[in-house]
TrEMBL record:
Cited InterPro entries: ATPase_NBD, Bacterial_glucokinase, Glucokinase
UniProt record similarity statement: Belongs to the bacterial glucokinase family.
GO annotation, biological process: glycolytic process
GO terms for MF: ATP binding; D-glucose binding; glucokinase activity
Name listed for the protein in its UniProt record: Glucokinase
GO cellular-component term (any): cytosol
Length: 327
């Protein structure tokens, strides 16, 4: 392999989620040569990256890797996949020995710095995307949250793990669901309180567990269903599935507006992720109502722009934007 920069130079970007890993090149600010692999593949992430970059005549100058996991001192332990790796594994695969890891929803937040009206479907509030702080939530394999704040020096993405904030019962029925859920997935509870990680309900990984708890509460014996089963038919009449979807909608709507209030996201609240993009019918009046209802602050919540991202490419776009922001 030639390492000379006489051939056109490029940078590597990647979006590594719990289910899939996407790798791409950035040349002159444009994303190209996108390839997708299974994150559950027997090969490690560094091996996937090495195989990918070896297909081109020169190594990338640098790399920005977005990962669905917390990052600590350059090390990654994937939250929803059995994989771990280190920035030192990726640096030798670049000309500049330069690799940067960012959380996948830090990348998603960076994607909001270039989002346009054609990239979204409007759900509520102002139609045109206004200037201001922005928040993005993504129910996919897990639940991601990213925040973009506007500063005097330009937009800045704020990393975090907002998908693991707590949610609690909203109705008497949900009290019983939460109690049943403790028998299904006790690790996600906040001590002995009826409070669980939001991701435990609001993700592809969590939906089957929620359905199991709802079924127990209704006294129903139901088969084990996948997220795809639970969302395949918008007009399904099974009481356990209907109630599972209702709980999903109302809690997701509430935390979307809660986070908008926390960050004063007048620039918009954006819903993304595989579950959302594949099932836009979920974002109906039940979801919108939960988003807007907030007691004395209902009017403020109702005024936040709310959008559904059309594409699942926001991770790569965000990694590109993070790369470009570094100069």
């Amino acid at each position: 392999m030639l390492h000379s920069r006489a051939v056109q130079s490029w940078s590597l970007i990647s979006d590594i989620g719990g289910s899939s890993t996407r790798l791409a090149r950035v040349l002159d600010g444009e994303i190209g040569d996108v390839e997708t692999f299974s994150t559950q593949n027997a090969r490690s992430i560094p091996e996937l990256v090495s195989d990918y970059v070896s297909r081109f005549p020169v190594l990338p100058n640098r790399a920005v890797i977005a990962v669905a996991a917390p990052i600590s001192k350059g090390a990654v332990q994937m939250t929803n996949a059995q994989s771990n790796f280190d920035v030192a594994d990726i640096e030798p695969l670049t000309c500049d020995q330069s690799a940067r890891f960012i959380n996948d929803f830090e990348a998603a937040a960076w994607a909001l710095s270039t989002v346009e009206s054609d990239d979204v479907d409007h759900l509520s509030g102002p139609t045109r995307i206004p200037y201001g702080n922005r928040v993005i939530l993504g129910p996919g394999t897990g639940l991601g949250v990213g925040i973009l704040v506007q500063t005097p020096y330009g937009p800045m993405a704020v990393p975090g793990e907002g998908g693991h904030i707590g949610i609690s019962p909203q109705t008497d029925f949900e009290v019983e669901v939460f109690k049943a859920f403790r028998t299904v997935w006790p690790d996600v509870f906040f001590g002995q309180r009826l409070c669980v990680e939001a991701e435990a309900f609001l993700s592809g990984r969590g939906l089957p567990h929620l359905h199991q708890a709802v079924s127990q509460t209704l006294g129903m014996t139901t088969p084990d269903l996948t997220p795809q089963d639970l969302l395949a038919n918008p007009k399904v009449t099974c009481p356990a599935i209907v109630k599972t979807r209702e709980i999903f909608r109302t809690h997701l709507g509430q935390i979307c507006a809660d986070l908008a209030l926390t960050t004063m996201s007048r620039g918009g609240v954006f819903i993304a992720g595989g579950v959302a993009v594949k099932n836009p019918w979920l974002f109906d009046e039940t979801f919108i109502g939960a988003f807007r209802d907030g007691g004395r602050f209902s009017a403020l919540r109702s005024g936040f722009p709310l959008y559904l991202m059309k594409s699942t490419d926001f991770g790569l776009v965000g990694a590109r934007n993070a790369l470009m922001s570094a100069g």
